[in-house]
């Protein structure tokens, strides 16, 4: 793993919220705040300019909302991960954020530890969701009826993915190369007709592959 700090962009239309997150995250020496933005359009410009690893994204903002911005960031800069941090816990917002590509969904009352852990997890390619957000996703997202199409190895990889493991960790657990795991993950997502690791994990939850 690189010793370089995780570069983070803070996006929220309220300056006091951004200031609070800066204060929270200043205690983590592995996180570097590289910039701020007050709406989704500014976020896109800052991502292109600053190349952050992780974007902390509010959802309700003027000019361009956080869901639209997340979708556009993942389209143009797929290597950049997004964590939604919002005061809104509505079923549709949770689903839309995840389908747009967010790797995390936290509420603004999350403590410094939860926020820091979500950033580290997203940077590793892992998912972190507020427990209630996870429940709403399980309830709202329609499960594809494709379990029978998965091979035994793909089922094993899906189970580990749903536990929050990165491709590298899954490779260690299964004893195969990381590029092979990546190929399995791509095959799983294609067979399940989902566009994110989070949606694949939801399938595993509904199918009882993990608790």
Automatic annotation (TrEMBL):
Query: Which residue numbers delimit the HTH luxR-type domain?
Result: 143-208
Instruction: According to the UniProt record, list the residues that bear 4-aspartylphosphate.
Output: 58
**Keyword Nucleus assigned:** no
**Record field: transmembrane:** none
Question: What GO molecular-function term can you cite, just one?
Answer: DNA binding
Q: Name one GO biological process term.
A: regulation of DNA-templated transcription
Sorted alphabetically, the keyword list is: DNA-binding, Phosphoprotein
Key word Oxidoreductase present in the record? no
Superkingdom of origin organism:
Bacteria
- Which positions fall inside the Response regulatory domain? 7-123
Name the UniProt record assigns to this protein: Response regulator protein VraR
Native source organism of the sequence = Meiothermus granaticius NBRC 107808
């Amino acid at each position: 793993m690189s010793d370089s700090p995780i570069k983070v962009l803070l996006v929220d239309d309220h300056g006091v919220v951004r200031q609070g997150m800066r204060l929270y995250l200043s205690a983590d020496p592995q996180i570097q705040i590289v910039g701020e933005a007050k709406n989704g359009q500014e976020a896109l410009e800052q991502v292109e300019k600053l190349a952050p690893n992780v974007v902390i994204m509010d959802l309700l903002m003027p000019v361009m909302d956080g869901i639209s911005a997340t979708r556009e960031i993942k389209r143009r800069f797929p290597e950049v991960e997004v964590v939604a941090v919002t005061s809104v816990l509505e079923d549709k917002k949770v689903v839309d954020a995840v389908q747009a590509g967010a790797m995390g969904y936290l509420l603004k009352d999350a403590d410094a530890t939860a926020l820091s852990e979500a950033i580290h997890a997203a940077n590793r390619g892992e998912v972190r969701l507020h427990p209630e957000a996870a429940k709403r996703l399980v309830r709202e997202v329609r499960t594809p009826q494709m379990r029978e199409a998965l091979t035994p190895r793909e089922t094993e990889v899906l189970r580990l993915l749903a536990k929050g493991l990165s491709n590298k960790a899954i490779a260690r657990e299964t004893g195969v190369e990381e590029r092979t795991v990546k190929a399995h993950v791509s095959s799983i997502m294609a067979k399940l007709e989902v566009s994110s690791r989070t949606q694949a994990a939801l399938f595993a939850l509904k199918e009882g592959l993990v608790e």
